[in-house]
Design brief:
- This protein is an alpha/beta fold.
- The protein has a domain of 182 residues: Bordetella uptake gene, domain 1 (D-Maltodextrin-Binding Protein, domain 2, 3-Layer(aba) Sandwich).
- Helices cover 40% and strands 19% of the residues.
- Strands 1, 2, 3, 4, 5, 6, 7, 8, 9 and 10 form a 10-stranded mixed beta sheet that branches.
Length: 335
């Protein structure tokens, strides 16, 4: 056999393997006929180690060989996730760039920034949700050990107003707004400290620099055994399966604080529909793998994929849901 024939056979085998991998996603033959992109960048707007980073990396790893030949995660932390969103907005709509973001950057930010640099509806194309979460509030060594619930924390904040502070993964994020809602409902002033992700906030809390942190409830799991982190409440309509012994805000008297959030994948606007559908199918397939499900469980995440249309509908619904809540708090942010 000549070297040319051998190369053709190898090329044909490689293409067949790629098509077989895509075929397992249930994609139509027309989509299978398209070659895999060389690379896909999954851009994450928060620091390594947190929920956003975990989702990006676990799902991103599975996109290699199914959606693209190579998958790379880039952390573009800063400005509460807006830097990453702007980077994807400006990218070519060719399927080579993908955003992974918490929903709050898309359904809360438009209500708090007067001059937001992106429009979540017109500048981004939905691909798939990745996970659903609830948030929790926890305290660290700064708060006495006898404070074990929201009522105790509120009493402590009233007695120690200079120390009544909490960290969140970003200004204007859902955890930040939960803090604002606690302030309003309990009638206490709390100083908000914005971080570039929940994990950096937890480091400061465990070091005694801040009193509390509000963030995805699963992000507290790795630190619970240290004894330096005590969960006080979670934000769902029922108790979190990851913290079954912890009452919800509503259970503990703050009945209006019932909040869930999602994480999702997006591409630049004008990305072709067939590309969005291929990426969505690859993501949904990745979310069903044991490796991804196990890693999500460790982070307190419920895997939840969707079609592009389903995510588009959810985003529009949440934009409408949060508008009156944001207005009632009176909170605005400066760019």
């Amino acid at each position: 056999m000549t070297s040319v024939s051998r190369r053709r056979m190898l090329k044909g085998a490689t293409q067949a393997a790629a098509l077989g991998s895509l075929s397992s996603l249930g994609l139509p033959l027309r989509a299978l006929a398209q070659a895999l992109p060389e690379n896909v960048r999954v851009i994450c707007g928060f620091a390594p180690g947190g929920t956003s980073d975990t989702i990006s990396r676990r799902v991103g790893d599975k996109l290699a060989g199914t959606y693209a030949k190579v998958s790379v995660v880039e952390n573009r932390a800063g400005a509460g996730g807006r830097i990453a969103i702007d980077a994807v907005k400006a990218a070519a709509p060719d399927g080579a760039t993908m955003l992974m973001t918490p929903g709050s950057m898309l359904f809360i930010y438009p209500h708090i920034y007067k001059a937001l640099s992106y429009n979540p509806i017109t500048d981004l194309a939905p691909v798939s949700t990745a996970a659903n979460i609830v948030h929790g509030i926890a305290v660290g060594p700064m708060v006495p050990e006898n404070v074990k619930d929201i009522a105790g924390f509120i009493a402590w904040c009233k007695a120690n107003p200079a120390k009544a502070n909490y960290g969140s993964p970003a200004a204007g994020s859902t955890p930040h707004f939960i803090g604002v809602m606690v302030e309003k409902a309990a009638g206490i002033p709390m100083n908000h400290v914005a971080f570039k992700g929940t994990q950096p906030a937890l480091v400061d809390m465990m070091g005694g620099q801040i009193a509390a942190v509000i963030g995805p409830d699963g992000e507290f799991l790795p630190h619970m055994k240290t004894g330096r982190v005590r969960m006080l409440a979670t934000s769902g309509p029922q108790r979190s399966k990851f913290h079954p012994d912890v009452g919800t805000f509503a259970e503990q008297g703050l009945k209006d604080i019932v909040v869930q959030e999602w994480f999702g994948f997006f591409m630049p606007a004008k990305t072709p529909a067939d590309v969005l559908n291929r990426a969505s199918a690859a993501i949904r397939n990745a979310l069903k793998t044991k490796e991804v499900m196990d890693s999500f469980t460790l982070m307190g995440l419920d895997p939840a994929g969707s079609t592009p249309a389903e995510l588009a509908g959810r985003l529009k619904s949440d934009l409408a849901f949060w508008a009156p809540i944001v207005k009632a708090t009176g909170f605005t942010a400066e760019n």
